[in-house]
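User: Predict the complex with zinc ion.
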Amino acid sequence: MAKVEDPICHMIVDTDRARAKGVYRGETVYFCSEVCKSRYEAGQTR
Ligand SMILES: [Zn+2]
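Assistant: Here is the predicted structure with zinc ion placed in the model:
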């Protein structure tokens, strides 16, 4: 169990309880919700 920061809303998210997560460039990113995940993906620079 670990706590990480949602990169969109800066809420602290527990990795076990994250509502959404994704792997970007080999790094797992956790989000508080699917909304933040889609916002992250929309703003993702490649
Ligand atoms: Zn969020």
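The chain has one domain: 3-42.
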